[in-house]
Amino acid sequence: MPYPHTGETIAEEIQNILNEWNLVNKVFTITTDNGNMVKSARLIPGLTTILCTAHTLQLVVRKGLLPAEVLIARAKWLMLFLTSPKQTEKLIEIQKNMNRIVSEVNSLLILF
User: CB neighbours of 13 closer than 8 A, spacing ≥ 6?
Assistant: First the structure.
């Protein structure tokens, strides 16, 4: 595909392919993304454009996930932080201390 990839150059290339393969007046629709392909398809006489549903859905989902990106990044950082060997040792030590404290409190409660 020659540069630049404008709607006009894409339309010209599609028209050349249709001519080369003897598909003129045999192809009536073209499925496109939402970019320059839409414009190029509109420039070819006799073609109807159908937007790719999967591509449109991908764009919608990606845009919908944008607000969650910060939350996902923070959760990933926290997970990596807590699973590092150094932090794992600290968490185990904290759990041991908490178990010791709970045992001491339970012992005191039994006395009363």
Answer: 1, 2
Q: Is the peptide bond before 45 cis (omega within 30 degrees of 0)?
A: no
Largest pairwise CA distance in the chain: 97
Compute and round to an integer the Cα radius of gyration of the chain. Answer: 31
Can you state the angle between helices 85-111 and 69-82, rounded to 10 degrees? 80
The alpha carbon dihedral of 13, 17, 20, 22 has a sign of negative
Residues 6+ apart with CB under 8 A from 47: 27, 28, 29, 30, 41
Could you give phi then psi for residue 48, rounded to 5 degrees?
-105, 135
pLDDT band at 46 (very low <50, low <70, confident <90, very high): confident
The answer, yes or no, to whether the previous bond of 85 is cis (omega within 30 of 0) is no
pLDDT tens-place string over residues 6-28: 888 988 999 999 999 999 888 88
